[in-house]
Amino acid sequence: MSDLSKLYKATILEHNRNPRNFGKPDSWTHEAEGLNAVCGDLVHVYLTIKDHVLEQVSYAGESCAISMASASMMTEFSQGMTTQQWRHHFELFKQLMDKAGRVDSFPELGVVNTLVTVKKFPSRIKSATLCWYALAAAIDGQPTATTE
Amino acid sequence: MLREQFPGLKVKVHGKPLVYLDNAATAQRPQVVIDAINNYYLYNNANIHRGVHSLSESATELYEQARVSMAKLINAPSAKDLIFVRGCTEGVNLVAQTFVRSRLKADDEILISHLEHHSNIVPWQILCEQTGAKLKVIPMNDQGELVLDELDQLLSAKTKFMSVVHVSNALGTINPVKTMIQAAHDKGIPVLVDGAQATPHIKVDVQDLDCDFYTVSGHKMYGPTGSGVLYGKAEHLNAMPPYHGGGEMISKVTFESSIYNAVPAKFEAGTPNIAGGIGLGAAAEFMMSVGMDKIAQRDQALRAYAEQALLQVPGLRIVGTAEHKSPVFSFVIDGIHAHDIGTIIDHHGVAIRTGHHCTMPIFQYFGLAGSCRASFAFYNTEKEADVLVESLLKAIAMFE
Q: What is B124-167 written as a DSSP string?
């Protein structure tokens, strides 16, 4: 399989076509916007946090398939975690997506490991990581996040 | 063959022949430009306007000859009316700060258009913050053409300056700047024209346009990056204060005061991009030897062919359909984001730009986050337009 086919593999295309937890919810407790100024990707993350647990994670925005799929996977993956658990997984995710990193998967990240192929397309890594930074910003009470 | 003179077009990308359609971002350079740069570094490497030794003299001559070539290309009355700058961005900032700023008071107005690149918006916003002046915008229509019916009204008693783009980098629209300049001059308003995307494609005659200032970007017209010129009417340049202080721009310095050098040296503080200036002169000579009429003709033939080819792609919509256009195509495809298209067709060797192209207000007008942009130059071929279309069809197939 070519790198390109690996990038646009079925899992990513399926999440892009049928994004989970997509759209602005009726209510939320935390929110943040992720903006990639260079390419124009914009992702808005909405959270309902109760007793330090991510009860509901949603997102909205208009961006590329990589960004949409990453956000969709992230919402399913993150729901039900405590913020502390989430932060731990976010650190693993950052290592997974680190261009210089050598790790190709972490068992704890499950289906999210699919995104590792994006590393072969350096100009697109930020598309995959933007929503994660936005979620971290939302937990921290920051209104905006960038990947810069 | 002209194309053969551009060595950058011979590279392969992902094992496929490069199809370079990102010329509006930066063009490829002909061998003569690369040779001119090498010739300076290899055989004439010295600082200019400083030494009495032979190398300094020959380097100075090459640099000043480049200024003459650029003056010929845009038909400036004298090479002294051209200031070497890093590009259009620096040219616009220079005019904003040294010509327009002293003429402004609170509530005065500066007029730009909806088609401007960020580099012809932000310097004026900074100036407005500094002076309390207001920025006004000539609107555009759904075709991406300026609505000139409103120009007369927008050129008000408060308007102190107009700065407009000659050719839109995002949509390719060629603006009727001569008519616009005439309208502004009728009311005594000076005008800057941003020529970044015009000089690579059409014959520019600053005397015929009668513009007060005209900016040229070197790397868009097959010259080196970090090179460019600002043309200004002599009467303006002579009256303007310097932009940057430093060496070369003075004739006498004491700790009490300094006497500034004559134009253009007054605006060229510090050792300039000598190799870049010399390379730019070579690019101007190259374009004149090809002939601007021939370049413009070839552009329009490519434009007609590529437009028809692109319209065969299902779900593709061209954004910006002005009657007068350079061969630049902004487009969107139903259901596929521009960045995904850009990544996929890159694997077929096709280089295009994706995103907002530093013209966010244009895409806000169309309700889009951005677009794909295929921008052609005279060395592109009809076959390359076909490869673009084939690669787009493959991208669509991938998402089905």
A: HHHHHHHH--EEEEE-B-TTS-B-GGGHHHHS-TTEEEEEEESB
